[in-house]
Amino acid sequence: MNISWIDWTIIGIFFLVSMLIGVFASKQAGSSAKEFFLSGRNMPWWLLGVSMVATTFSADTPNLVTDIVRKGGVSGNWVWWAFLLTGMLTVFVYAKLWRRSEVTTDLEFYELRYGGKPAAFLRAFRALYLGVFFNVVIMATVSLAAIKIGGVMLGLSPIETLLLASVVTVIYSSLGGLKGVLLTDFFQFFIAMIGSIGAAIYILDLPEIGSLNNLLTHPNVSDKLDFFPDFNDWNLLIPLLIMPLAIQWWATWYPGAEPGGGGYIAQRMLSAKDEKNAIGATLFFNIAHYAMRPWPWIIVALSSLIIFPQISDLGAAFPNIPADKLGDDLAYSAMLTFLPTGLIGIVLASLIAAVMSTLSTHLNWGSSYVVNDFYLRFVKPNATDKELVAVGRISTVLLMVLAAVLALALSNALEAFNILLQIGAGTGLIFILRWFWWRINAYTEIWAMFISFAVAIFFESINPRLGIIDIPVEQSYLKLLYGVGITTIGWVLATLLTKPEKDEILLSFYRKVRPAAYGWKKLLDRYPKERQEQGQLPMEIGLMLVGTVMVYAALFAVGIVLYGNFVGALIAGVVSLAGGFIIVRNWDRMKLS
């Protein structure tokens, strides 16, 4: 496609602003490691919330949604919509606990909650396992999306795309630290929203589509509009709805949707001014992530079924795309090639913003693990702030290089999504319970980590070759079920067969974080003077459920409006507003600092 000078000017301005933000934040970010990685723990909820949304507004996300919709219809999105339960649990139960912990990273938590060499090993291993290996996989999926966008819309080779996408990101991320990332995210979020909404509106007016009504009634689309899978087809109902809502949301670990919070979500909560801002940020994130953003992507995905009904149609339209990169997820980028001058520049800038926002967050988050939880803790405990910032900037560059190399080997985002879910299967419940059950120890997490990884390797690599366990394609969800079951049994046994943490470590954690006392009773019975208030856990779980209904109602209200059912949309809207009213009325009862 032809990109005009107007489009290139828009893209150029976007790059320039992003670079200037990094330069602006560089002086303050370089003053200390805490400034570089936590921005002085003084960030407001609105900036942190927008940053969380911008980070998950990755260029691979619309590709993933397109892949899902083309294969399984709108209802296929429950595979990630179900994580709203995790998000709301983090909002009302865990956000304030993370802020109270006052750790620098969520991995530092291990030596606050556990003790001795096992805790130190867990922190060091996870710093490299998550900060490098896992983090690189996530960034590689984002880079893969950039490769497909660059190939379809700009005719660039994978290497050319990676060079353009990564150089600017690395520069402003390494200069500005977390504050630079937050400020750039804020700017990039609005560019991304304008681009995705503008693209959806224009595509609906294409001659091949005609209008929203024509789209919804087209034979290629009409059977893919249901919000829920067919309840009479168990081969669809189990993997698309039952598994995500009954098991996946609490049992699996996935970056950005960790049960109990974690990763870059925890980093944002830890950098908040106080507990109220930590909760406000995560609440805004979950509302925006699940209710505000999906429908423009879904509209474009459904439209692609008319213009490119088969993958072969995509291949014929874009013969320069390598065969191993050709898939349903390519359809999103393919649809954007129809956009006119000016709008294509904004949309390209929005997609670049999505790539850069996610990469910058993961680069800063990953380097925080390398610096704080490995280098400072185990290599050079007396390192100066200047040295730590330098190591952070070097690790930022190296992480980007590793992600770019891996991106060249991946084929689609859904493949990576499923692999990551399988690796984290069965570990999620630990991250929920470790705050509230005194008996969990470092060995619980160590065994869970290794068992889940071994099970994932077995089902993703060994079993397909040897056929030890027969798993039909339509029942591939059984892999996740096996993973959750085996891993959960393994870590429960490890917990019960190993000694609990020492009382002084548990009491120190309890005093600092002040979790609800329900699961600490056996410990507190030995130290009755340590007992604090029972806590507000029942109310918090109630608000989690209310918040979940509120956001789902808002999500479906938008969809019902698009489908032309205004009465149904009004009902869903009232339900959503009622949920918001209940949350506001109970806000002051949460006793936040």
Describe the structure using short key phrases.
593 residues, mainly alpha
Fold and architecture overview:
The chain is mainly alpha-helical. The protein contains 26 helices and no strands. The longest helix is centred in the N-terminal third of the chain and has 47 residues, at 158-204. It is globular, with a radius of gyration of 23 Å. The model has no long low-confidence stretch (mean pLDDT 85). Pfam families: SSF.
> What order do the SSEs take from the amino end to the carboxyl end, as H and E?
HHHHHHHHHHHHHHHHHHHHHHHHHH
Beta percentage is: under 5%
What's the total count of β strands? 0
Task: Give the averaged pLDDT, no decimals.
Answer: 85
Q: Level of helix content?
A: over 70%
Q: Span between N and C termini?
A: 54 Å
| Individual helix count | 26
Low-confidence segments, given as residue ranges, are: none
**Tell me, what's the shape?**
globular
Radius of gyration, in Å, reads 23 Å
Strand-pairing-aware structural class: mainly alpha
Oligomerization category of the chains in this entry? single chain
User: Major sheet: size, sense and barrel closure?
Assistant: none
InterPro entries: Na/Glc_symporter_sf, Na/solute_symporter
Protein name: Na+:solute symporter
Keywords: Membrane, Transmembrane, Transmembrane helix
Subcellular location: Membrane
